Every structure is written in C-alpha cells, then in structure tokens.
Amino acid sequence: MSVIVRDDGFHADDYKGAALDLAQDLMPGDLPTDFQSVDLIRIAFPSSADGRGFTLARHLRARGYKGRLRAKGHVLADQYAMARRCGFDEVEISDDLAARQPAHQWTFRADWQDHDYRSRLKA
User: Judging by DSSP bridges, how do beta strands 2-6 and 90-94 pair with one another?
Assistant: First the structure.
C-alpha cells in the first residue's frame, strides 16, 4: 500500500484511472509531447538523493501540463516544500516511510508558498 501526501496531510489514493509513469532518469528533451490528455503523471523517486524528478516536474509545468503531478517513491518530508515548488501536487510514499515520518512532519512543510524566495524577487 501507499500513502498520498498533500498540504493537508495523509490521504488514501483516490485516483482510479490510468497514469503515465516516468522514470527519474528520463532526459527533459525526451518528455512526451502528448501529455495534455493525461490526468495523472507519476515521476519515480527511487532515492531521496536523486533530484532529477524535480527537474522533470519543472519541465512538465513549463511545457503547460495542467493535470495532477505526483512524486512517487522515496521523497522525504524535508523535501516536500521543494516538490511543491517544482510543480508536484502530491507525493506518494510507502506505508513504512509514513510510519517513520508521520503526517505532522509533512504538514509542517506545507507552508511552502510562504517561504518561496522567487515570489519575493518579483516584488
């Protein structure tokens, strides 16, 4: 099983449709161009030390993807704010990781918009 993390805490997976799964080692130039009809894209995070999935999320959003974007795998609570800033809507983690890092550790970082340095630069 897995747990879906959103800004308001832990949730069960409510998505029942087909998703497009992308590997973290996909080069941004190799991203699919026909993703607009896809409701959910999941990007793999096999290790918390591998940040390539964050780059893919930014590229997808920059190319106009408006659907649900999910980081799947070994993302830590400390990385949640970065995931949201990069364009992820949610994070899918294992039950084991959810037990080691309970919901309050994730919601503590849900104020990611309040501390976004880029928004301060626009002023």
Answer: antiparallel
